[in-house]
Specification:
- The chain has five helices and five strands.
- It has about 170 residues and is α+β, with helices and mostly antiparallel strands.
- The protein has a single domain, classed as Double Stranded RNA Binding Domain (2-Layer Sandwich).
- Strands 1, 2, 3, 4 and 5 form a five-stranded mixed beta sheet that branches.
- Helix 3 runs parallel beside helix 5.
- The longest helix has 27 residues.
- The chain is elongated, with a radius of gyration of 19 Å.
Amino acid sequence: MRYFVIAMLFLTSLDLALAQAAGVRERESLRELPGVYVLIEAMKPDARADGLSAEAIQTATVHILRASGIRVLTQKEMHDSSEGAVLYVKVSTVKSPVGTYAYSATVELFQETQLVRQPLLGVSGITWRALGVVGNASQGHLRDAIDSAVQPQVKEFANDFQAVNPR
């Protein structure tokens, strides 16, 4: 039993070290980023009918970013800039026959990147990602559940952005 506990402690500390290293790389990918365009995944009709709104998620996300001093780009600004990035909020829902929802919510940042073996070839890739949230909620609480899942991830992005782009 003692060896099992020691092994678990070792593996846990190893996992944390790897997670922190990945976090540093992701955070560094935000350095000198001029701003982000916010893209919200379209909601399913049943979720919209039960009060979930891409527009409300967009408004809350933009508010968090602007309050953190992060420039929110228009679609045109993002397309016109080679340095623009897309903060993508994806909310997936599945409604059960009894009216409850299973959901997942993730926030990711897509940026243009270069391949090491072909530096002239630019590709879009995920350079920052929050852990994501999976849960369930009743019809009447879907919007609150999604807000509680998305907003901490957007705040995490804002904190990481501010860490490498101090004012």
